[in-house]
Design goal:
single chain, mainly alpha, Four Helix Bundle (Hemerythrin (Met), subunit A), 4 helices
Length: 128
């Protein structure tokens, strides 16, 4: 079975992770930091934003793929995938600010809500 819907969100998530990684690379070059964050607050923040995406994206993509594979309604997979990508973009953009911006809060909440919802949906499909 092809996982057509998840392909979209895997691609979008991959582009987001790529953009965040490039931000780290460019900041390391500009700030002359070879490894880690070198006690540089800008680089440290960029590293954490990228790492946070890396911590969340894989499990959500796996959960989305499993739902689609088990023939969950495509609209539900799209809703969860779209909400997750939106949440990750809001979170990343909110993290660039020095304070806890509304984008970071909404993005975190949306990302966690999707992760929780997908986990429950997978359990429901299992016990059916």
């Amino acid at each position: 079975m092809k996982l057509q819907v998840v392909l979209l969100y895997a691609g979008l998530s991959g582009l987001l992770v790529f953009a965040l990684a490039m931000r780290v690379v460019l900041l390391r070059i500009r700030e002359r930091v070879a490894i880690g964050h070198g006690d540089n607050r800008k680089v440290e923040r960029a590293v954490r934003v990228h790492a946070n995406a890396i911590e969340n994206v894989p499990i959500v993509l796996v959960l989305l793929a499993l739902l689609e594979w088990n023939q969950a309604p495509a609209w539900g997979v799209h809703l969860a995938g779209g909400a997750f990508v939106l949440g990750r973009v809001l979170h990343a953009s909110g993290m660039w600010r020095r304070t806890l911006g509304i984008g970071r809060r909404i993005g975190s909440a949306l990302s966690f809500l999707v992760l929780f919802g997908l986990s429950i949906a997978n359990l429901i499909f299992f016990f059916r």
